[in-house]
Amino acid sequence: VREGAVEAGPGRPRRPPRADPGGGPLIEYGILLGAGVVADAWLAAYGVLRLRRTLAKLAFVALLLGFVVMTSAFAGIELGGLGPEWGPVALWAFVLSHPLSAIFLLLAIHGEDLLRRYPYVFLLLVPAPVLAALAPPSGYDLANVYGTPPLNWYLVLCLALPLGEAVAAWLRSVARRSELFLLVAGAVVLVLTGPVYGFELQAVGLDA
């Protein structure tokens, strides 16, 4: 035993190891998530002030506010600031980001007359509360959300629908091809990576 140190005896618990003063990767991860929250909040404020199309503004701001809620809840849980009861908040904000992303992309493709041409598009939001009501007693697990039917069927549909619409519009319209190419690329990114940050990595077990 080092001179001056107190050795743990039968009645004395060992002193816990000192925490890493730098915080390591966890602090860096928290900073990254916090930066994402700030960026999303700034974009939402920008959308409120600058976007003129009403439906596009509503979809854009709702999507970004969902990102803020989801990322804040997830970061709070991961960093120990929030309890596990916030898990469903992060989960369902993540789930709702899928139909909101789809609606926003469809509005970008078809414009403000989306409701006139496809009035049923907002039915994309309906399955979310139904799936929440029919959730198993233990709830859904954010880490396995893409592997849990029927929830994963709903998420895949929400990602595939705007991709198909963007590709179809790109093939039909010559005048808007450069604009629609960006929407196709965005829809492909959604399908390949999921709509927000690194949650999809956790879903497929690559977060370790």
Describe the structure.
It contains 8 helices and no strands. It has helices at residues 24-50, 54-78, 87-110, 114-117, 127-133, 151-172, 177-193, 199-203. It is globular.
Lay out the secondary structure:
Blueprint: H1 24-50, H2 54-78, H3 87-110, H4 114-117, H5 127-133, H6 151-172, H7 177-193, H8 199-203
Measured distance between first and last alpha carbons: 36 Å
* Main beta-sheet strand count, sense and barrel state: none
Categorize the overall geometry: globular
Mean pLDDT: 76
Radius of gyration: 22 Å
- Percent helix, as a range, is 55-70%
- Write the H/E string, N to C: HHHHHHHH
- The parts where pLDDT drops under 50 for at least 5 residues are 1-22, 195-200
Question: How many extended strands?
Answer: 0
Assembly classification: single chain
Structural class: mainly alpha
Compact overview of the structure:
The chain is mainly α and 208 residues long. It has helices spanning 24-50, 54-78, 87-110, 114-117, 127-133, 151-172, 177-193, 199-203.
What key phrases describe this protein's structure?
63% helix, 0% strand, 208 residues, mainly alpha
